[in-house]
Amino acid sequence: MVLDIDEKITGPLAVSLKEKFSNLVNTKTTGPKYYEITSCNAIKSAGIKYVQQKYHLQKNELIAFSDGENDIEMLQEVGLSVAMGMQLIM
User: Fold this and answer.
1) Residue 44 burial (CB < 10 Å; 0-12/13-18/19+)?
2) Which of 65, 28, 34 is nearest to 48 (CA)?
3) What is the pLDDT of residues 7-38, one digit of tens each?
4) Handedness of CA 56, 58, 61, 63 (dihedral sign)
5) Spatial separation of the C-alpha atoms in residues 56 and 50, rounded to whole Å
6) Among 6, 9, 78, 79, which one is least packed by beta carbons within 10 Å?
7) d(CA 40, CA 68)
8) In this structure, is the dihedral angle defined by the CA atoms of residues 24, 16, 38 and 53, taken in order, positive or negative?
9) What is the mean pLDDT of the chain?
10) Cα distances (Å, whole numbers) of residue 70 to 53, 54, 73
11) Residue 39: band (very low, low, confident or very high) from pLDDT cuts 50, 70, 90
């Protein structure tokens, strides 16, 4: 997590990480002052899929709440998506 960084730094950092490590890391903004770098395997949608399979749930039986870009994949895996506090474009 990178905190309180100027977009002049995070923009080129994101481009560079995607070019060099796209198969290893995901990069997302998680708020106006937060920039998140995680493993490609550490995604919330994987957790949703795990719960869905474990409890034999249908997509329309799932709901997710979001407050940032790092939640987009999770929101796409559920029947009802609720975005709070910021505008997400999907």
Assistant:
1) middle
2) 65
3) 777 778 888 888 999 889 888 777 667 788 88
4) positive
5) 10
6) 6
7) 17
8) negative
9) 84
10) 22, 24, 8
11) confident
